[in-house]
Amino acid sequence: MFYTNRLPFHFARNPNYRSSYAYATTYNILGYVPLRYNALRTTLLQKERGNVERLLKPIKDSWIANGVSIVSDGWSDPQKRPLINIMAALDRGLVFIKAIDGSGEFKDKHFIAGVLKDALNEIGHEKVVQVIIDNTSVIKFARALIEVANTRFSSVVVMLKKLKLIKRCLQAIVISDQWAAYREDDVGKAQKVKEMILSDCWWDIVDYILEFIAPIYDMLQIADTDRPCFHLVYEIWDSMIEKVKAAIYRHEGLEDDEYSSFFNVVYDILIDRWTKNCTPLHCLAHSLNPNYYSIEWLSENPKCIAPHQDHEISMDRSNCLERYFEDESELRVVKIEFAAFSGGRFPSPDALTDRWALQPLVCWQYHGSSSFPTL
């Protein structure tokens, strides 16, 4: 009752609890004495733990053959103590390993890494396939093996990269004697896996997927940071689509002006996603990035045009400015200042050079208050 229902041991000290047993035994089992506090928390608890260990033994014995994932997460108990759970996960379910009380500990990357290393040693590093942890900054710095996010797209890319990294090891596994023994469990599935891993064609497909998905993955990584990147999003999306197209066209051997049915499907998906996410504020931020007016940026790609020459960007930028500046006279001043900014009419002669040489925020801090105070 205590272990299954998670009753606290001090409940055994409650006089009402003890009297209830006395009443029950008066009519049923004469002389029965309820379990006492010390017995519950010592000898009986040890016996129950031994019983649980016996029940878990078949599961733990399978770890060496099938591999296991270490799962870790932090939480606070009712006493507000910071706890770190360590669990082992397999297709048969989770097995709780231990909970670590982090009270009084400085939970930096060294502490977290130490906790995970101890878990690896306790379970056995030869049994562990991966470590699954949360996405906090201290966990990232701890670098415990590899972390696969719960986003479907990202997890696929991370796993494919991992497969490519251990390609030779996988090929060695499927031609080993141990693989032949494993085949007894499911001959058909084992044979299919072996054929795939030994197939150059299959690995070429993996390489191709990673090649055209890489620009999308890179874009997500740039956007998923603590640094300001709102002023970069519009351009990143544009250049990402061009890079995806280049990878697909290169693989299919097509010229830039030819039609690709596959790219057309990918393009529609990307544009649909961008349409849902793009706001006039993205266009305003893009328009106010000094880098995109510099000769250096415009000469990188013949398709690059300055933001004030792009019709779509200009329309959304105008809508955004009109919402920000409701006063007509103030809006008029902002329009004049933006015309001067986008046209390169700066009072300071070194401002044109600084548009490319300095970070956008630094450039605005240095030149903005004197040149375009309202904007």
Which features would summarize this protein structure in a list?
375 residues, Nucleotidyltransferase, domain 5, four-stranded mixed β-sheet, 20 helices, 4 strands
What does this structure look like?
- The protein has 375 residues and is α+β, with helices and mostly antiparallel strands.
- The protein folds into 3 domains: 1-61, no CATH class; 65-147, Nucleotidyltransferase, domain 5 (2-Layer Sandwich), CATH 3.30.420; 196-371, no CATH class.
- Helices cover 60% and strands 9% of the residues.
- The chain is built from 20 helices and 4 strands.
- Strands 3-2-1-4 form a 4-stranded mixed beta sheet.
- Helix 8 crosses helix 12, helix 12 packs antiparallel against helix 13 (233-252) and helix 13 (233-252) runs antiparallel to helix 14.
- The longest helix has 24 residues, at 200-223.
- It is flat, with a radius of gyration of 31 Å.
- The chain starts with a helix and ends with a helix.
- The model is unreliable at 145-151 (pLDDT under 50).
